[in-house]
Amino acid sequence: MPKKIGHSIDGIEEYDNPIPRWLMWLFYLTILIAVVYLIVYPGFWRGLSGWSSAKMYEEEVARAEKRYAALRPKGVDVYALINDQKAIEEGRQIFARNCAPCHGAQALGDTGIGPNLADKEWIYGGKPDMIVKTITEGTANGMPSWASQLGAAKIAKVAAFVHSLGGGE
Ligand code: HEC
Q1: Confidence category of residue 8, pLDDT binned at 50, 70, 90
Q2: Residue ranges covered by each domain of the chain
Q3: Domain 78-164 adopts which CATH fold?
């Protein structure tokens, strides 16, 4: 018969039983797991496994990068096109179809809608990347955005053409 602790409160008595063995083993097991964990993972030191949250993040980003890179539109380097006669010729045709109605067939601004693109006066800048930006995004004063209609490749070509008209910086 287990020992009683020997006091009685409102008639309630307590046995002096040891903690059940299985519970003690469970307790030792948690200590063991903690020690193993601190050896394998960073805690007191960098850990045997070399795991770190920063590394895990980088690996995940690298994996996502690999998976989605194909879906991202490739950047078009307009600077590679400004001396490319073939690209400029294609740009001339894109211009005739899409831009001439507002900027004039010679891009001289003689329609009274869009400004002259063949002079050295620029509102938004005459460097190739600035011209690309204006065409891609459009402006608040009546220049439409061409991003969805033409796409990056055609915009780069038409920008190379505009740049070639004489006013490009
Ligand atoms: C609906 C008429 C219209 C069409 C079509 C149009 N533009 Fe424009 N564009 C304008 C107007 C208006 C401006 C002046 C915008 C401003 O002052 O904000 C302008 C401005 C520009 C500028 C900036 C000029 C500067 O001085 O900085 C460029 C570059 C340009 N257009 C190129 C193009 C190209 C290339 C196309 C064809 C893909 C095109 N535009 C089609 C009306 C048009």
Answers
A1: confident
A2: 4-71, 78-164
A3: Cytochrome Bc1 Complex; Chain D, domain 2 (1.10.760)
